[in-house]
Write a structure and sequence with these properties.
- The chain has 467 residues and is α/β, with parallel strands linked by helices.
- It folds into two domains: 130 residues, 3-Layer(aba) Sandwich (Rossmann fold), CATH 3.40.50.720; 297 residues, Dihydrodipicolinate Reductase, domain 2, CATH 3.30.360.
- It contains 14 helices and 15 strands.
- The strands form two sheets. Strands 14-13-12-11-7-10-9-8-15 form a nine-stranded mixed beta sheet.
- A hairpin with a 2-residue loop joins strand 12 and strand 13.
- Helix 11 packs parallel to helix 13.
Length: 467
Amino acid sequence: MTNTHSDALVFFGATGDLAYKKIFPSLQAMVKRGHLNVPVVGVAKAGWNLDQLRARAKDSLEKHGGLDPAAFEKLISLLRYVDGDYQDPATFAALRRELKDANRPAHYLAIPPVLFETVVEHLSVSNCGRGARVIVEKPFGHDLASAQELNKVLLGTFDEADIFRIDHYLGKRAVNNVVAFRFANTFVESFWNRNHIESVEITMAEDFGVQGRGGFYDQTGTIRDVVQNHLFQVLSNLAMEPPVRSDSESIRDEKAKVLRAIPPIEEQNLIRGQFRGYRDENGVAKDSQTETFAVVKLEINSWRWKGVPFYIRAGKCLPTTCTEIVAKFHKPPTLIPDSQLVENHVRLRLSPEITIAMGMMTLAPNAEGLVLQNTEMMATHSPRADEMDAYERVLGAAMEGDSTLFAREDYVEEAWRIVEPVLKKNTPVHQYAPGTWGPNEVDRVVPNGGWSNPGEKKALAFASEAA
């Protein structure tokens, strides 16, 4: 399909939680910017009518983003509704009638993955899938075999170019800022390699628990929930080679190459943890071995990165909520005693604010002789209220036919190849106290010089500036 704009948006799961919290606010924002002016057809099995869906949309906007009267009136004028069972051909016949003369619809499956195959097959049989795009939510399978089966189902009706696998992390401006930092600044290329960088850390910390999603989370865990998708995408942006062109396939080629260069995770390079109290959550098994915290150490066997360890750390009930990257440099070959030196670093904070910081050694103020301190030079940007939300960005891109922000089939399967062997080994899960940086066993997989904990580094930076 050419990159023509979709002439209708169908979203399955219109009465669900994702639609309530994310989709309706994103649709209103798209209308407000003039990016959405086609029919929007909600599909669900709720026994509702169109007026009830409009009321749900209004309540969603009042709770999650703010109601803009003019944009909302436009949105509800575009809104349509089909109520019915996803296994009933009559539901899709009604959808075909509601689409009228639209021949390039985008079908957004905001539904559990177990329903993907059923919906895709009915889209094909009903001709709703002809000339269409399909947008699917993560997780893209539960392991390599299920990911391959899902891809087989999708490719049975749609071309790869018309399949958009949403990882909303790729819609975040800060994640794409990593690419801008690397490829829009000449000086970065001079040190962004194994000759200068000793190690790279990626931390995604959350100071809250599973927030009532125990049933889902207990079947998923941290590695499946955020590591092999969100954080591998961040890793790919950090480690890929400069694309030869700016089109989506050139960019996605380079990201897939990064994953191909990563061997499967070895048992000794994984630590799994579970916060105390997790097993008391609703929907969680009393003997659950699901991790709420994980640390993995990866190697990228490429010319640029061979020998540089990449550490990924993610978890719930940690001391703060923050996503941050720290690249540490080799210490300089200097006459200054090594004990006085802290590794220089580049720190990229992706949330809650966007920060680029350079860590360096400087003379300590009011000290005699060569007394050093670790100081940061920092630039920070706090997101503005009118900035695009991640879902707004990815939905708009999918309707435009731009695949840059979406995971390709080969990328998804490579990600599962890396994590699946160790997931099958039932490695131990260690308990940790809420509000700490994971279990004590994490010290077995730790960067040289220790972890760079978000918050602690910021305090140091402010103390240095104040001094």
